[in-house]
Amino acid sequence: MQTSQTDPLLEPFSTARLTFKNRMVHAPTTMNMSDDRGYVTRQTVGAYEALAAGGFGAVCVGATCVRWDGLINERMLGFYDDTYIISQRELVEVIHNNDALAGIQLFYGGLIPGVGATFPLEPGKGWIPGTVSWGPSGKYPIGNQQPGVVPTETYRELVEAYAQAARRAKEAGYDYVSFHFCHGSLPHVTLSLLENQGRNDEYSDRFLFCEQILQRTQELCGKDFPLIPRLVCDENFVGGYDLDYFIEHYAPRLHALGIDALDCTFGSMLPAQSRDPEVSSGEVIGGGFYVPNLVALPYIKRMREGLAARGIAMPLMGSCNINTPEQMRAMVGDGAADFFASCRQSLDDPDFPRKITEGREEEIRKSTRTGASLLAGNIFGKGVAGSAQNAAFSRDREYRLVPTLQPKKVLIAGGGSGGMEYAITARQIGHDVTLYEKGGELGGVMAWAGNYRTLPNMEQIAYQPDWHKLMIAKLGVDVRLNTEVTADLVLAEKPDIVVVATGAVPALPDVAGLDAALASGFARTIDRVLREGPETLPEGPIVVWGSGEGIELALDLARAGRQVRLLDAAERFVPAAYIGSRSKAVLNWAGKAGLETEQGVRLEDVGNGSLRIVKDGKAEALACAALVVAPGRTAHDPLSQALRGSGITVQRVGDARTPRSYGNAIHEAAYLVRHI
Ligand SMILES: Cc1cc2nc3c(=O)[nH]c(=O)nc-3n(C[C@H](O)[C@H](O)[C@H](O)COP(=O)(O)O)c2cc1C
Ligand code: SF4
């Protein structure tokens, strides 16, 4: 561990006009939590209060729209006129009260409002009524396939809209303004070599729009008002601009404007061919699950060198897939960025900067980078920003832990995500808690769900159970391993509350011979294979039955050079819910590994060393070394039934109720435990 004297994360840093108390910044994150006109709500204040209290050097309020027709989610913050200033002051106040700098990012959609439609859109429209989908040429549509072309006059009006919003931000008390010149918003697609083609007005100068916005902002706010725009520094597209182009054409003009720092991102949502065949350009924005950690670091280092070669000294901010203190330190290390900005790690544990500052970094709940929108829907639609791991996020006031005056005896059955979350929180509130686990280890599914050998970042899945286990140990929760909770045990212990968190079991299909094959070991459930490790499967061809749950295992085997077939009874491939947004990448990789999902296949019977299937109406005998069954899950809860009529309060959480994501288990537990 680093000491505060040597830890680069804790060194204060000054730009031309701002002093950051440390190098940790909360990245702009659109929350979708405003009221229906874009004003700040209590929930918005709660979210930013939690972030600011976490100890960041600066907290940047997420994309805030400058004109109504550029919204991308219905509850996006707005800064449309001066009446918005007062409610924005609340955000500034909670950030300043926590001794952090307050920034706000200004935004206008451009092509992005066309994303998120669940119905066909009229040409040029966004999915939210009154919004538009348009760009400098409309040749690279995002969402709406028939976007419009932004008229010259509209560009000029938007320059004024941005600058007026910046003036309002200054009046609200913000220390700096960030501009969303990235990912697919109108300023970025105007910078784009692909989307900005064929214009014959002044905006054929691709940088002009950004430049005018910054210049007009300086006219209204004063040249010394700090600006930290966020730009795509490399589009990562074949034919798009790359870092060298950016350094030659855009960086000098940014520098000439006297910005305080450059917030660098490296991907775009435009529908074009990615330069890197392994990582799509869009995946570098939000840092797709398989995308390497610190994916932006090599770019930042090249940027630093390229700027130095041109004599440009400009503080840099880097972000994307940075979850551990080691990764954070690498991003602010020699020759890299001056600050790092985090988004998902901030939501999953807003207190991580404080933990680093106080020398408690082992207590950081490292982000699994799964589930921000699995729970609440996509942020481009109706979803709100949140965290699967951190149920309290944005509810901190309601969820504040209040020590109980009437401790209850709480018996928890099941040491997975739901059971552990419940145990930790109940203990913090002051209840008398005993946590029982049937197996020899805590962790539940999450402890082994990432046991793949060839798929990257899978070890991150275990970050969550590891953190839970650490907290259980720190709080001294009474844990009884290798003990199955029965009705008799409960009646003998006489708890006030029983929490059933016994998870789910594979929903085995009724197929002739399957039971015997499972008993002999020829057939194995996916749970068993992952627990024991895929390398324990015998030599020879493998059949995975159940593509929705089994695709990642089949892919892992295929990438490890194993011969594998992936079969499923359903007509169409439907990925398991927990695969979430990485399902596109999974399918892409499956294609590259030559793995096909064979759908509409019936499993007739299972022998020892062979199967009979029916595919396209034809029976086929398949010889294989092992059959892995990945049939989906069914709730496992014998206890609630057995306790019915006993007078004991029973609460069910997580998969024991209905199999879903681990985030649902955590959120249910977090809610119920506060209502004991
Ligand atoms: C829910 C959510 C909302 C986001 N909103 C914004 C935003 O308003 N402005 C922006 O520039 N980037 C936004 N991003 C991108 C993040 O700021 C960040 O660059 C990206 O998530 C990669 O960093 P991470 O790996 O720390 O999450 C958002 C990301 C998420 C997951
Ligand atoms: S839940 Fe999926 S889409 Fe949402 S942030 Fe996490 S990985 Fe991305």
From TrEMBL:
The superkingdom of the source organism is Bacteria
Coiled-coil annotated spans: none
* Ranges of residues in domain FAD/NAD(P)-binding: 409-650
Query: Pfam family of this protein, just one?
Result: Pyr_redox_2
Cofactors demanded by this protein: [4Fe-4S] cluster; FMN
InterPro entries named among the record's database cross-references: Aldolase_TIM (IPR013785), FAD/NAD-bd_sf (IPR036188), FAD/NAD-binding_dom (IPR023753), NADH:flavin_oxidoreductase (IPR051793), OxRdtase_FMN_N (IPR001155)
Keyword Cytoplasm among record annotations: no
Q: Which UniProt keywords apply?
A: Flavoprotein, FMN, Iron, Iron-sulfur, Metal-binding, Oxidoreductase
UniProt xrefs under SUPFAM superfamilies: FAD/NAD(P)-binding domain, FMN-linked oxidoreductases
* Protein name stated in the entry: NADH:flavin oxidoreductase
